[in-house]
Amino acid sequence: MNNFSYTQASTAKEATGIRKDQPAAAYIAGGTTLLDLMKANLEEHPQLVDINMLPFKGIEQTKDGLRIGAMERMSDVGEHPLVKEQFPAVSESLLLAASPQLRNMASIGGNILQRTRCGYFRDAAFPCNKRVPGSGCPALQGDNHNLAILGTSESCIATAYPGDLSVALAALDAVLTLENAKGKQRRVPVTEFYLLPGNTPQKETVLEPGELIVSVLIPATAHARRSTYLKVRERASYAYALASAAVGLEVQGGTIRSARVALGGVGTTPWRSPEAEKALVGQPATEATFRAAAAAALRGAQPREHNGFKVELAQNTLVQALLKVA
User: Fold this and answer.
1) For residue 248, is it within any domain?
2) In the chain, fewer beta carbons within 10 Å around the N or the C end?
3) What does pTM read for this prediction?
């Protein structure tokens, strides 16, 4: 781990100004991902900017939906009565993640920005296009049983976002508010925030240098209230998803009026599936409909040698999630 200086920022302008002057600096809140990467010498930052004092807090209902400050902790959001009642998929995605100790430390903004758990990325002894562009992707022919089958490229097949929350946020049309060094804010849907690897897998999000995530806004809708998050993993706790599904349905008279579907653990980004949603809307809320939607969601899958099982696993996970909310 390299030596670094430490600064506690009291305002967003101060924090973004430091990053503007020192582009290699990094923001730190809970540090549950960043410190791991620094200890493994996968990231080196001459300066850490503590942003815990920034006023990006609050879990509140607005006229547009639910607003969550980026500095809120995962455990506080997951346990909040408003989140549990009106946005159950969000609550469940948070409470199924990590461990209680990590949930108490990790911020919402940090969770959204956590990096891949691909073993080749996490081991500096191997080449990796995410770490060193153009060096290669050994996962293509190596151990890929935990990696992506949707949105992959010949440059990278990592599940770039390995977590749970952003899968639920993608399903429920959440929007991020970002702020730059000039104090200017912009809003980006979660479905547009993460980038496919293509030929530039080192670029994982649309976040510009120095920008901060300020908050998350989740629209209040009928399918958000009738939503769930289902996670399948290799052990019962403290494990990343092999496959997961965040779904929301609005059902009237046995017919699906609106549907939202996103998959985790199988895509290079939190994977929203318009194909599955199209197969659901206007159809009866039956297992046959759900299986047709699951087939549509995985139709474009490109499994490798060790992760072909994820196609059926993701389909079954999606069907079970839909059955739960229906």
Assistant:
1) yes
2) N
3) 0.98
